[in-house]
Amino acid sequence: MTGDPHGPNKFANYDHVHRSVIAHHSSTMFVLEDTTMWVLIGQGQLQLVGEIRCLGGIVIDVDKYLVQLDGEGPNATVQTTDYSYNVYIQGLGNIFRYDSAHHDHHSFHHVHRYDVFNGDREGTVERCEWPTLGEVIERAAEWYDANFEQLASVRPH
Questions:
Q1: Which sequence spans correspond to the domains of the chain?
Q2: Contacts for 146-149 with beta carbons within 8 Å, 24 or more apart?
Q3: Which residue of 56, 71, 86, 130 has the smallest Cβ count within 10 Å?
Q4: Is the separation of the CB atoms in 88 and 58 below 8 Å?
Q5: Distances (CA, A) of 8 to 22, 33, 36, 54, 143
């Protein structure tokens, strides 16, 4: 398959990469629990949906859609078509959300950024490169490290 992280790939490889990324971030103790699961939502369509719970009450809501291009089962060739990765702090609000292009607005990959510590519910929108879920987890971990003290003051352990 291609070296493009968003290009077509065998489902077994796709799932292996997902599990490896989660295992890596679990080994660093940032990811505490992964409830994501693959759901067959129609002929030739898969959804990865669920939550990744992290340190500091950070949760990553995952909603990713893949289309089956050919083959079947683990050897099926699949490719992501749409995604939304919403990163928030339980009980406090959104930190950032990465979205694929929408037909009704923002016809490009974009990130919504929020000033969570000041109750920002509207955020700002910026064009961005298409992130992998692993990159989103990494950015959430970096945000946690950079904001640990302020987070600890509003969310005691």
A1: 9-154
A2: 147/117, 148/56
A3: 71
A4: yes
A5: 21, 28, 21, 29, 30
93 burial via Cβ count (<10 Å: 0-12, 13-18, 19+):
middle
Q: State residue 21 phi and psi, 5-degree precision.
A: -65, -45
DSSP for 99-157, written as a single string = E---SSS--S-EEEE--GGGT-SS-EEEE-----HHHHHHHHHHHHHHHHHHHHHHS--
pLDDT (tens digit per residue) in 117-147: 999 999 999 999 989 999 999 999 999 999 9
Place of tokens 């489902």: 11
DSSP H or E stretch at residue 26 = helix 11-27
Model confidence at 1, pLDDT cuts 50, 70, 90, reads very low
Token digits of residue 36: 């994501």
Closest CA to 131 of 70, 76, 86, 78: 86
